[in-house]
Amino acid sequence: MNPRTLEKLSPWLFTIAIFLAWELACIVFKVNTSVLQPPSAAFAAMFKLWRVFLYHSWVTLWVTMVGFALAVGFGIILGLVVGWSRAIYRGLYPVMIGFNTIPKVAIVPLLILWFGIGEVPAIVTAFLISFFPIVVNIATGLATTEPELEDVLRALGAGKLDIMLKVGIPRALPYFFGSLKIAITLAFVGTVVSETLGANAGLGYLIALEGASFRMANVYAALLLLAFEGVLMYAVFAGIEQHFTKWAFRSQMSAAG
Amino acid sequence: MEAFVDIDGVTLKYRGASGDIVALQDATLKVQRGEFAAVVGPSGCGKSTLMRLVTGLHKPTAGTIAIDGKQVTGPVKMAGMAFQNANMLPWRKVIDNVLLPLEIVEPHRSQFRSKKAEFRAKAEQLLATVGLAGFGDRYPWELSGGMQQRVSLCRSLIHEPALLMLDEPFAALDAFTREELWCVLRDLWQRLGFTVILVTHDLREAAFLADNIYVMSARPGHIVQIKPVPFARPRDLQVTYEKEFGDIVMELRMKIAQVRQS
Asked: Which segments of the protein form a coiled coil according to its record (chain A) (predicted)?
């Protein structure tokens, strides 16, 4: 097999190998199924109750995407504002870091109190946990504009808006798209945390419910589906990143060569 | 005759980490229209500060700067600039990098859409004169350092500035490429007739290209010597191997060694 096909296949091979090792370990060591379920049991549960899993997976997916979309919108605006002015940057940063440090699991009870049990607290949690990396990355991209390039443009009479549009924003795009990959996985974390604590649907809710009834195969099935959704959305945004910021990847390659 | 660039008794102080720093002290420099001026001096003497002052990016603490009889109070909008780093925008093709100033400077800015084809043709032509015909549709990273610096020169000239400010534009290039680009700049200057202020560490570069070489003192910087370069134009690279050329470089070298110590 040539190295290129091997590289393409390797994510699949690794995933399959891990499942096989897991399955084998359960058989060889005769692991008690209340401790660890083999993947075959999880897949069997998925297959048997596919309607249930499909429904809860869908809820988690759309809730996450709504929270994430809010985070992108808000993150872009706040990132541009923070990147625009040093005064705002310095003023907002401590507040943002402080806020980001609070574990979101501690806020969920408050959100449930305000919005009631359901999708809204999950959307808000997903939003709160995922906007921070977007803001930081956009602001970093804007702040690292080469001062000499700014001089060239300013000497020509360019205003701050010109510099932002011609240089700052295109420069910040790779940072932005990079941050989406981080943000989307965080958004899933937010959704599931909230669903676990107070929801009527979603994979987090399912995990809490089935766990409480010791139906461990269903718990593992839900966990696997969650991981699958995370990988799927990560791949989508990695693809979008590649598409929109080819120049950043290629120029890095040439800088190394 | 009134000087085109008239720097008159300019002092610039700014607040540094350890008290006030005087970058320039009573610097006076008069460059005629169409002159090729080179500014040399020990490192940290405020050469680059001088560039920012002339282009209006900084305000002097004392003294005045006038270009073409008009006092500089803000960004001059009629100067082209190029630096040691080519500062290409990697997401734009070469031609779009060259066109960038036309998207900023009036009156081109408001005509940019309607005259796009004309501007592109002009940019292609300018690229051809620096030996980059047909490279317009490449991306900057596909070009070598010397080629990028050629593009940077084109970008600084596309809006036909009356004044070109160069801050060590060839310092990062290898010796052969550098000499090649001296000739590119020489030809552009001879053809288009703009005024140049070239800040450099390279005394051979200054002696080969300039009409007058202005030697700056160590900080706080001011002009301590004006050295006219007598060689006839157009100059060939051959001239750099003549004895007289060596003498000028030697003289400048001694002068800078002297001001570094004082």
From this structure: none
Half-sphere exposure of B230 (CA within 13 A, CB side): 7
B63 DSSP assignment: E
CATH of domain A45-241: 1.10.3720.10
Cα A205 to Cα A112: distance, rounded to the nearest angstrom: 14
Nearest to A217 by CA among A36, A59, A21, A52: A36
pLDDT at A228: 95
Nearest to A222 by CA among A208, A194, A203: A203
Residue B137, chain A, CB below 8 Å: the answer is no
**What are the φ/ψ torsions at residue A199 (nearest 5 degrees)?**
-160, 170
Q: Check whether A201 has a pLDDT greater than 80.
A: yes
Other CB atoms within 10 Å distance of the CB of residue B201? 14
pLDDT score of A256: 35
Residue B83, token pair as written in the block: 């630096």
Among B76, B103, B155, whose Cβ lies nearest the Cβ of A155? B76
Confidence (pTM) = 0.81
pLDDT score recorded for residue A254: 43
Q: Which residue type occupies B58?
A: H
A251–B100 C-beta distance less than 8 A: no
Identify the pLDDT of residue A28. 92
Q: Which residue is listed with tokens 């996450």?
A: A64
- Identify the H or E element spanning A35: none
Helix (H) or strand (E) holding B106: none
Cis peptide preceding A170, ω within 30 of 0: no
Give CA–CA dist B106/A177, Å, rounded: 34
Residue A256 per-residue DSSP state: H
The HSE-up count of residue A122 (CA atoms within 13 Å, CB side) is 28
Q: Which domains does chain B have, with CATH numbers?
A: 1-78+163-169+192-229+238-262 (3.40.50.300)
Contacts of B57 in chain A (CB under 8 A): 151, 154-155
Phi, psi of B20, deg, nearest 5: -70, 140
Question: Nearest to residue B131, comparing CAs of B144, B147, B143, B120?
Answer: B147
* Tokens coding A63: 């809730």
Q: What would the two tokens of residue B135 be? A: 């490279």
DSSP label at A143?
H
Res A251 pLDDT > 70:
no
Contacts of B81 in chain A (CB under 8 A): 151-152, 155
Q: What angle do CA A72, A78, A83 make, to 5 degrees?
A: 120
The segment with the largest mean pLDDT, out of A243-247, B19-23, B38-42, B212-216, is B212-216
Measured CA angle at B41 (ends B38, B43), to 5 deg: 125
A153·B56 Cβ contact <8 A: no
**Cβ of residue B48 closer than 8 Å to a chain A Cβ:** no
Nearest to B87 among A152, A156, A245 (CB): A152
Residue A124 confidence (pLDDT) above 50? yes
Nearest to A156 among B52, B77, B90 (CB): B77
